[in-house]
Every structure is written in C-alpha cells, then in structure tokens.
C-alpha cells in the first residue's frame, strides 16, 4: 500500500528495503521525542547520585515480549540492592515478585514521571520495533540496560550510553555495575540524552518528513 515506506528505525528500514525490492521508495524517519515536554518533567526531579535507595525499573505492558522472565530474574537476584518498579503492570498482577512496585496502566506523562524517578532503566524486550519507552528513558538521562536485539542495538551503543545484554545473568551483571558506580550512571545517562537530541528530536524528524514529502512530490509531478 502507498507510494513509499517511512521506517521508524534502522532495522525496519533495512527490512523494508529487502522486502519492497524496487517497487517502492524507502525512507528512514526515526521515532520522534518531544524534548521540551521531557525537560519539563525532568526539571521537576532532583538528580540522584547516591548508591543507596537506587530505583531500577521498566515501562510497558506486562508480557513475555517485554522480557518478563528476565526482569523477574534480575529483580530477584538484586532485590536487596535496589527498589524495583514496573510502570504499566497491573496492581494485582501475580507474575512479578511481591516486592516489585506496580503502577497500573497510567497516562503517559504520569508514566514519564515514574521513569524520571528511576536511576537505571532496563528494557529486556525479546522482540520490538523501536521503543518509545527506551528513547524517553534515554532522553531523561537514564542509563539503560537492554536485551541484545537489533532495534535495541541500533539505539544503545554498548559501554557508551548503556549496556546490551545477551541473557538475564549478563543483564544482572550490568545492572549491578551501574548500581555501584554513580559516575558511570551519570556518564551513560548524558550520552543517551545526546543520542536522542541528535537523532530523535521532534524538530529533526519533522525536517526528515518534510524532505520525504518534497522528494515524493517532485517524483510524482515528473
């Protein structure tokens, strides 16, 4: 359907090129983040750098696709090292350990306020497109630990703006490293924010879409 495909991330872009052949034009127009809205939320939260009362969490539906088993493993292994929260999990859900805070399904801005309170954001998804939750956490200066799938690797540069884990024990190791190193949390969080500013700001993506429409309009009128 349609004249062209606008992919929201690098993996979808490569897949679209492969699947469409020469039948359609394919463009990369990354998911966009409203950084002004993010900054308004961020300014209401004081920066955290202590090694005590660390909060680790994720955001999304409580499903196996979101890496429920990985989350349960790392939270159970590091229960005494941090406070744990799943933003979006139902309050009466039994899949999570009792000590994990559940917010229920909430408005996006309220969810972002919960993410702003985190010290470490984890994203153990087993398959994905290009996660807004991950990009929003990075825009909030959160160091991230993600599963080793192509969409996450396209966003997270291992050891620079986060860690990419091949399995749950490896994810546990990286979370433990961040819990014990406030400076590393700060550095990775800042690097993640820079990545979003350079690649996913709403102004940049708007310009990309302007260029796409100009290209298509020129092609059609020839």
Question: In a few lines, what is going on in this structure?
Answer:
With 222 residues, the protein is α/β, with parallel strands linked by helices. It contains 9 helices and 8 strands.
Describe the protein:
Helix 3 (68-77) packs across helix 7. The chain is globular. The mean pLDDT is 92. It is of the alpha/beta class and 222 residues long. It is 46% helix and 14% strand. Helix 5 (132-139) links the parallel strand 6 and strand 7. The protein has 2 domains: 4-31 and 202-221, no CATH class; 35-199, Glycogen Phosphorylase B (Rossmann fold). It contains 9 helices and 8 strands. The strands form 2 sheets. A 6-stranded parallel β-sheet has the order 5-4-3-6-7-8, with helices on both faces. A two-stranded parallel ribbon has the order 1-2. It has helices spanning 10-20, 35-42, 68-77, 108-116, 132-139, 150-155, 168-179, 182-199, 202-221; strands at 4-7, 25-28, 55-59, 83-87, 101-102, 120-123, 144-147, 162-165. Keywords: Transferase. It comes from Desulfovibrio intestinalis. One of its GO terms (molecular function) is glycosyltransferase activity.
What is the average of the pLDDT values?
A: 92
Structural class: alpha/beta
Strand content: 5-15%
Briefly note the CATH topology name of the largest domain.
Rossmann fold
> Helices and strands, in N-to-C order?
EHEHEHEEHEHEHEHHH
Helix tally? Answer: 9
